[in-house]
Backbone:
């Protein structure tokens, strides 16, 4: 199954200057728990926003840079090539950024969203989720607290 996973603001903002504009520790824990042991597909800029490759995951990086290299990672030049590499009988995750989510949307079977209940100024956005194509099957609201500055909801959608 191809799954898109993201933390997304009310206005579909993802981040600015290649960084998240919020800090939600429970979202990081959920991301780690869902993606560990799987292939993760991302754009070059998303990969470069990490201090180092994420442990226990196979990184597939999409870039137009012909000579791009990243130790221990698979480099491809299209979403189609990235998806071909993923095991067909396992979950694989598209983890961003905005351009890669747009390219991946037609291929996704499922979307795991952390909806941050706030609007942010951003330069990367998640694509619109068409309610005619997607069905919400899980919604778990979380109130802000001392570690989370914003209310947020974990949501899972599947393609109809």
Residues:
């Amino acid at each position: 199954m191809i799954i898109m996973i993201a933390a997304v603001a009310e206005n579909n903002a993802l981040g600015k200057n290649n960084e998240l504009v919020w800090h939600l520790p429970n979202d990081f824990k959920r991301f780690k728990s869902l993606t560990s042991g799987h292939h993760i597909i991302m754009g070059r800029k998303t990969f470069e926003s990490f201090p180092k490759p994420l442990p226990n995951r196979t990184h597939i990086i999409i870039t137009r840079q012909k000579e791009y290299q990243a130790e221990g990672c698979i480099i491809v030049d299209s979403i189609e090539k990235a998806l071909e590499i993923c095991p067909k009988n396992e979950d694989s995750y598209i983890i961003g950024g905005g351009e890669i989510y747009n390219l991946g949307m037609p291929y996704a079977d499922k979307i795991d969203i952390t909806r941050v209940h706030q609007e942010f100024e951003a330069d990367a956005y998640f694509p619109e989720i068409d309610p005619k194509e997607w069905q919400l099957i899980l919604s778990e609201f979380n109130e802000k607290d001392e570690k989370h500055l914003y209310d947020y909801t974990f949501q899972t959608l599947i393609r109809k």
About this structure: The chain has a mean pLDDT of 97. The beta strands are 2-9, 13-15, 39-43, 58-62, 74-76, 92-96, 110-116, 124-125, 134-142, 152-159.
